[in-house]
Amino acid sequence: MRNKQGTATLIRTARFLATALAVFLLLFSLDVFGMEGSILHKIAGFIVHSLPSLAIAAILALTWRNRVASGVSFLLLAVLFTFMFQTYHRIGTFIMLSGVPVLIGILFLLGR
């Protein structure tokens, strides 16, 4: 059995990694503003490219108090990212987009 301090550290680490991943992915959304097109097209593109970050933020917010739900949600998000972004083609992309949510999900489940 883990002590409360160890459990709290796992949960804080998982939440920090989830937030960092959301911000990291959000930074890639900003490249839309360097492309050609009207400002409305750029804003629409930014919103579409921000959906993965918004999904991470939504999962984190909705499952904040339920560690098991957080863990399972991030594991499912990793599976979704794997197929949606076809990260299985490149190991680096897989680790960054699918591996990090797996790690986050495992940390949440270990912290229960």
Description:
The protein is mostly helical and about 110 residues long. It has one domain (about 5-110). It contains 5 helices and no strands. The longest helix has 26 residues, at about 5-30. The chain is elongated.
Q: Order of helices and strands, N to C? A: HHHHH
User: Which structural class is indicated by helix and strand composition?
Assistant: mainly alpha
Gyration radius over CA: 16 Å
Number of domains: 1
* Residues in β-strands, percent: under 5%
Distance between the termini: 11 Å
Compact overview of the structure:
The chain has one domain. With 112 residues, the chain is mostly helical. It is 78% helix and 0% strand.
Layout of strands and helices, then pairs:
Elements: H1 4-29, H2 39-49, H3 51-62, H4 67-84, H5 91-110
